[in-house]
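Q: I'm writing up a methods section and want to include an example of the input and output format. Could you take the sequence below and give the corresponding predicted structure tokens, formatted cleanly so I can copy it straight into the document?
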Amino acid sequence: MNPLQSQSKRSSGQLFALLTGFFYILLTLIPDSHSLMVAWPWVLIWQVGIICPVLWFLSILLRENCFPQLGNKIDIWIALVIISLIITTLYAEIPQKAIWYSWTTLCLILALYALNHGLVSPQKRYRLLQFQGGLAIAFILVSLLVWGVQTFLPELERLQSLRELGVNVRFDFSVLELRNWAPLGHQNYVAGYLVLVLPLLIALGIVESGWRRWVWIAGVAVGLLDLYTTSSRGGWLGFFVVLLTGLIILLVRSSLPRLWLILSALGSILLVLLFILANNRLRSLLFAVLSGEGGGQFAYRLITMTVGWDMGSSHFLTGIGLGNVPWLYQEYFPHWAGYEAQLIYQLHSTPAQLFAELGLWAVLLQLGAIFLLLYLGRRWWVRELETTDFILTGSLFCAFIGYFTLSLTDYQLDNIAISGTLVIYLAVIASTLRKQEFLALQSGYRLAWAGCGFLVAVIIWLIPIHRAWATSTQGFSGLAQEEVNLDLFIDKLTQAHELVPWEPYYPYQLGWNLGDIALTSNNPSQEQALLPQAIKGFEAGLNASRDREFGYTNLGWLHLKAGNPTAATTAFAESAQLVPAKRGIFYGLGLSLLAQNQRELAVEALTLEVLRDPSFITTPLWQLRILQPIYPQVLESAIAQCSNFLNQDTLPPDLIPYFHRVRGIFLWWQGNLTAAGEDLEQYGDGLSQALLKISLGEEVATVEQQLSPSPAKLVFSAWSNPSNRSQLLQQAALKARKERLPEQYLAEVLTTMENAETFEEWLKQNPPIWQYRRKRLGFNVNMRQMGGAVPSDYFRVVENLPISLWFKPVFPTSAYFPELDQALTSQRESLLDKL
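A: Here is the clean output for your methods example:
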């Protein structure tokens, strides 16, 4: 080969290596990178970034005319991965999604080979690990800085303002939004990254000397603080396993005194426990588990792992395909799950996620990964290595073991920062443990040109996807303008859907935004023009993604508005098949049935709504003209259904107090105080018993004195003390929802209290109300598309404000109540069969 050509190829390879490193740093440190990856133009940036290691690898093939293997049986496992990607993509439920994710996986595999090719000496491996360690420290500092500025300090200011109002509330890590999400976008991702890099920082602190050692040790200390702020249960579990593994290795291989090692181990474990106990979320979980009451803490994971098992089992030989989980999730959603975890992006368990996506291949790959880790670990253990190589490689094994533990509770392989770190670690281990020379197959040129052809084909396939992303962004800008350019929005979103008809995001955004404008428009002609287009958009979205409750539910409300109750019934029935416990579905179904004069079926539907969400019996919506005539019948039906359940000999024990409490509070709301007392005196909580006493004529002030401190107690006090009423009500609101009650609502509460003669009249007959629409938070994240609006349901929730804010506990409602949903299943199915 011409030396100049060889030098040119080497230079191009170095350029692609540098570009790969640049994009890796960028996607590790940029705030909210996991969301930016699906926002235009960032989606194009990272797609260019993952092509760089492909070009890097191809340049190596062209320069060396050979295929450098990893050795140590790693290539066999990689080959199995590639075979599984091909087979599962061919049989994927949504093949386009599988191609997208399989292509990304292939790019990471080629990055592994390209990186491993350059690690020909201990010095290069050491420099690479120093680079990774430095990047980890930068990550930790960015994480604490961004979270501190955007989350921690503003929350402290808010809490201080509450203290000035007489409400002492501490920083609460149990609130999801307060945990450290930066820079990867979610606290579990941050914790996963830290579990991977903290062992490396510890090892670098051991092998380095002088001021560098103190830099790495400081990185470990600040990293532990960062891990604490994530409040991640899986993260701390993973780090505890890292710590335990490292201590075992030290006890077996270290020449240090055993007593010193044992004391150090105990001190380290104690330090971890102190971190856990200092965090209110982790502390409450630990105490709940120790007391045997922590089962509900894991309901979310139980649901998602059940879905993963059902997906993988139904497609055992191929799986449903990479990236298909969020699109098919609700088809497999268990009805006993209520409305907990009703919509997700991933299954929060790597084994469950991979089994769902790959089926049998996931089992083979994960067993192969465990075998490979054991094989490589044995080689590391018995091989004569330099002390530095032994310690650094050992830290990488500890990181793998800790991350494997965390991966049981979360799935993070689609995060470039985390998958990139895994690639670096595996490349270093492969380079350290193989023979000095490369094992190679002589077929580099042909493979390189075939790879170039494949790359061009993939780029051609990607072009319309990116065009649609860019086009939709232009359309969304039309809605963001001061004067909404609706024509631009419709035109661009329609074009985006035509470019990628298998992507439901564009028609859903088109349909939802047009429907939202139509429903809030004061212009009848605009409403009539936009409603059919909105319906068409939702139908197109459902054609692209066949099982999504969001589409059916909002389509049902649009059909009701358009005067087509039959179509609305069909849409609501489809929603009820997917997430039957979703609040508002059976209410919408009941309205559509009333509009068709099917009164008895409507009563059945509305009864199911109030049995699953008992506080719905208090909504002022019952005063609507269409609902007033059947309200007494629905209330009687709900009471009768509670009695029917209580008469069953096989009723689960947890449902006995539930149905007594629900029947009792319904009877109290109805005004049947004697019958209500029979249920509430034995099964009711202190607050429901207090309300019953007040209805029976006992003074509010007397009842108040019998209650323990609560927001409701402050409301009773406000009733009895008109002069301090405003202050007491505001304190009650602050205690109930950690923020002030808006002045307009406070004024309405004060006015209705003044106009009511009795507390019961105020609460039942003349309550203040508030209205809102439930947001579909996470809609864009779950659909892996950013740029559009965060939708909310068209159903406008109208609530009795005091009940909703202060007295909700007397109407027992839970997102996750498997026994209740199983008990209601036969009634739901019976109603849907009649439709």
